[in-house]
Design a protein that fits this description.
Blueprint lengths: L4 E7 L2 E8 L7 E6 L6 E2 L10 E5 L4 E6 L6 E3 L2 E3 L4 E5 L3 E4 L2 E7 L11 H5 L8 H20 L6 H30 L4 H29 L3 H25 L4 H22 L28 H19 L12
Parallel strand pairs: 3-4
Antiparallel strand pairs: 1-2, 1-11, 3-5, 5-6, 6-9, 7-8, 7-10, 10-11
Keywords: Membrane, Transmembrane, Transmembrane helix
Pfam families: Yop-YscD_cpl (PF16697)
Organism: Inhella gelatinilytica
Length: 332
C-alpha cells in the first residue's frame, strides 16, 4: 500500500529514519508523537514529553499539528510553539519538538528538482586537472615574492616562511572548519573542495588589491584605496557564502544573513576605530609606487602642491591636539 506521507526524523540535513503514514477510511491519518512506545512516531529524546503532539495528515500536502502540554514545546521555523498551539505544517518543512527535528514529506507535494551531490560539487572536473596544486603554487610564489621584495638583503630564510605559514595555516583552518560543518549536516568531509574555494578567494583578493593600488597610482584616484581596504571583509563574506553552498545548502538565507551582519559589524568597528585619522577606510599613504612613466594623471606644479598643503594646516593642527582615541588633550 502506498504511504500517504513520511515523517522523517532528522539528523542534521539527513533523515535518520522515516515513519510511513497510511491513509485511513476518510483519506487522512491521525498520529501522535512523543517518547511513549504507544506513539506512532517514537522519539528517543529526553526533552520530549511522553505524548508531545498530535497531528492530522490529509490528502493535501499539509498537516495540522497540535502541541500538547509539555515543558519544552517546539518550534516551526523561527516561531515558538507552546502547549495547546495548533499550526499548519507544510510539506518539506521542519518542525522541532524538544531537541528532535521532524520533516513532513507528502505524496501530494511536488518533488523538488534533482541536485548534484556534494561529492560531484567537491570533485568538479577542474579539480582533476591540477587546480588545487596550481593554486597552492601561486600562493607560495605570490606571498613569498612579496616578502622577498619587502625584506632587506641578508634576511634569514625563516623570515620568508612566516607569511606563507600564516596564510597557509589560516586557509587550512578555515577549510577544516567548513569541512566539519559539512560533515555535521551532510555526512561528508569535502576538505579539498573547501580548501580550493578558500585559495581561489585568497588569490583573487590579492590580485584585486594589487590592481586597485596600481590604478590608484596610475590615475591618481585615492578613492580606490578605500575600496582596497574593503576587499578583505568583502572577500571573507563572499567566501563564507560560497562555502555555505557546500556545507548548508538548505540554509542559504541564514548564511547570507550572517555574512552581511559580519560585514556591517566590521564597518561599524572600523568607523569607531578610525575616529582619530584623517580618512576612514584608507591607508595613510601608498605602500608601493610604480615607475613614473606609468602615470596617466596630469602633472601638478610645486606651487599648487604647496597651496593645497597650506589649506590642510588648520585641520592637521586640530587633529594634532587630540590623543590617539580622538579626544582633546588637556593643555596642562
Amino acid at each position: 500500500m502506498k504511504p500517504l506521507a513520511l515523517i522523517d526524523v532528522m539528523d542534521g540535513d539527513v533523515a535518520r529514519h522515516s515513519v510511513p503514514v497510511f491513509a485511513d477510511a476518510q483519506g487522512g491519518a491521525t498520529l501522535c508523537v512523543g517518547r511513549s512506545l504507544d506513539c506512532d512516531v517514537v522519539l528517543d529524546d529526553p526533552h520530549v514529553a511522553a505524548v508531545h503532539a498530535q497531528m492530522r495528515v490529509e490528502a493535501t500536502p499539509v498537516a495540522r499539528l497540535t502541541l500538547l502540554p509539555s515543558l519544552n514545546g517546539g518550534w516551526l521555523g523561527t516561531h515558538p510553539l507552546r502547549g495547546g498551539t495548533t499550526v499548519d505544517w507544510q510539506a518539506d518543512t521542519v518542525v522541532q519538538l524538544g531537541q528532535s527535528r521532524l520533516r513532513l514529506r507528502h505524496a501530494a507535494a511536488a518533488v523538488a528538482p534533482e541536485t548534484p551531490p556534494v561529492q560531484a560539487v567537491a570533485h568538479h572536473r577542474w579539480a582533476h586537472r591540477g587546480i588545487l596544486p596550481l593554486l597552492i603554487l601561486i600562493c607560495l610564489l605570490w606571498f613569498g615574492g612579496e616578502q622577498w621584495l619587502r625584506s632587506e638583503p641578508g634576511t634569514p630564510l625563516v623570515d620568508y616562511a612566516r607569511p606563507l605559514l600564516g596564510v597557509g595555516l589560516g586557509a587550512l583552518l578555515w577549510a577544516g572548519v567548513w569541512a566539519l560543518v559539512t560533515q555535521v549536516f551532510q555526512r561528508r568531509f569535502p576538505f579539498g573542495a573547501h580548501l580550493q574555494r578558500t585559495l581561489w578567494v585568497v588569490v583573487l583578493a590579492a590580485a584585486a588589491d594589487e590592481a586597485l593600488a596600481a590604478l590608484a597610482f596610475v590615475g591618481s584616484w585615492p578613492a580606490l584605496l578605500s575600496v582596497a581596504e574593503w576587499l578583505g571583509p568583502i572577500a571573507l563574506a563572499t567566501l563564507a557564502v560560497w562555502q555555505g553552498q557546500l556545507a548548508l545548502p538548505r540554509r542559504q538565507q541564514w548564511v547570507r544573513g550572517a555574512a552581511l551582519l559580519g560585514f556591517l559589524v566590521w564597518m561599524g568597528m572600523s568607523w569607531v576605530s578610525d575616529e582619530g585619522v584623517q580618512h576612514r577606510w584608507r591607508p595613510p599613504y601608498m605602500a608601493g609606487l610604480l615607475p613614473p612613466e606609468w602615470r596617466l594623471a596630469p602633472l601638478r606644479s610645486v606651487d599648487a602642491l604647496l597651496e593645497e598643503a597650506e589649506r590642510l594646516e588648520p585641520e592637521l593642527a586640530a587633529k594634532a591636539k587630540r590623543d590617539p582615541k580622538g579626544r582633546e588633550e588637556s593643555q596642562d
